[in-house]
Amino acid sequence: MTENTPTITNIALVGGGELCKEILEKTTSVYEQEGVYAPILAVADPDPDSPGIKLADELGLLTFRNCRQLYDRRYSIHLIIMLTPEEEIFEEVLRTRPPRIRLLSYNVFKIFWKAIGLEERKLRERTEEMETILNGIQDFILVITPDMEIIECNEAFLTKMRYTREDVIGKKCYGVYHKIDHPCEGGLIDCPLKEVVRNKRQIRKIQTRLMADGEKRYYEVNIYPIWEKDGKIQKFIHISRDITEHRKKEEEITHRLEQMVADRTRQVKETHEKLLHQDKMSSLGKLSASVVHEINNPIAGILNLIMLMQRIIEEDTLGQNEVDQFQKYLGLMETETRRTSRIVSNLLAFSRQSKMEPKHVNLNRLIEQTIFINSNLLKIDGVKVVTNLGPDLPDLMGSEDQLQQVFMNLVSNATEAMEAAGGGNLTVETSHILKEDNLQINFKDTGSGIPPENISKLFEPFFTTKKKGKGVGLGLSVAYGIVQEHGGSIYVKSKVGQGTTFQVKLPLKSASARHVK
After folding, report:
1. Domain spanning 137-242: which superfamily?
2. At 426, which helix (H) or strand (E)?
3. Does the pTM exceed 0.70?
C-alpha cells in the first residue's frame, strides 16, 4: 500500500432505531474525512420494520436479523458501532466478535454523536448568521465555480438585478450577466475570472452590465479566488458594487468642467485676439511713424539736391565748379538713397516675407566674406579685426543670405559702438561645441558698452540707442528672428566702458532644415 492510498474502514451498525436512521440520513452511507474512507455497509436488527432497517434496505445496504452474521469474512467488516443501549447485546457482541473486528459501545458513540450534533448546530447557526449578514450587504455577492456556474448569491443581487434564485443558481455567469450562451472571450466583454486565473491573484475592474429590462449599468467588480491545497482554484467569490449613479455624477462633473474649460478657452482666445489686434495696431502706428520719419529725411535731402541742381541748370552757368558740385551732390544722393534702401530692406526682413531655403553653409568662409565686404567701413572707422576661426568646422544647414545679414548687422553695430572712441578692436571667434552639437560665433568689441537697463530691450522692434538718422531699431530684431528660425540662440554680455560680446549659437541642422526632406 502506497503512502497516498486511502485507508478503508468498513462499518456495520447494530440497532435499527431512530438513531440509526438519523446516522444514515446524515452520512448517506459513505463519508470521507482526511483521506480515510469509512463506508457503512450493513445494519443488524431483529425487527425488520425498524426505521433504520427500512432505510438501509432503500439505500441498498446489507441488513441482518442477527448481529453474528456481521462476522462473516465475506463482508470485511472492520468496526461495529452499537446503536442500542441494551447491555446484553453489547456483552454478546463483545464476547463473540472476532479479534479483527473492533467495537464501539453505545455510550461512547453517544458522546461523540452529541459532540458532533453540538458542532453541527453551531455551524448551522453560524451559517444562518453569515447568510443574514450577506443578505444585509448591499454589494452583490456570488459564489462561482471554475466552470463559471453560480452556486450561491445574496438577496441584494437578486433584488437589484430583478432575478429569482431559480434564474441564477445553477446557471452560467455569462448567461446571467450578459445574456449570452458562450463564455466571454475578450473583445467588448472581458472575463474577469479568466484574468484571475492568468494572474493568480485577486483583481478589481469596472464593468458594464445589461439589466433584465435592457438598462445599462456600471459596476465595480472584485474577484477573490479560493484555492485548494493542490494550487487549483476551488471557487471564485465575486463581489460587485453598483456605481452607476456615482459614474453619472462623475460624467456630469467632467462635462461641466469640460464646458467651463471650453468657455474659458474661448474667452481667453477672444481676449488674446483682441490684444493681438491692439498690439498689431499699436506696432503698425509706431512702425508707420518711424518709417515716415526715417524715409522722409533722406528723401527730403535728395529732393533739395535735385531742386538745387535744376536751378543751376536753369541759370545756364555750368562750368567745372558746377560739375564738381554736381558730383558731390550725386554722391550725397547715392548715400541717402542707399540709407533709404537699408531701411526698406530691414522692414521687409522684419515682416518675414522671404522663405528660408536651407543649404550647406561654410561658417568660416561666410565670416571672412562678411568682414571683407565691411573692410572699407572698418578701415575708415579705425577698427582692427582679429579672427580666431576654429579649424575644420562642419557645415551647418541654413540660409547663407540670412546668416550673412545677421553677421553684417553685428559687425555694423560693433563698428558704430567703437566709432565715437576713434576705433578699437573687433574679435571674431568660431568654434564647434561638441557637447551641444552646435557652432558658436562670438563678436567681441572694445566699444563703449551697453547700459544694463538696455540689455533686455536690445532685440525689441524699434528700440535703438543710435543717433537720429542712423536706423529705426530693426537690425537686431531681424537678426534675432533669423537666428531663432535657424533653431539657434543669441546672447549679449556687456560692461559700460569695456565693450560688448554678442554670442550666437547655431545647431548644425537648423529647425527649418529639419522639416526639409
Report:
1. PAS domain (3.30.450.20)
2. strand 424-433
3. no
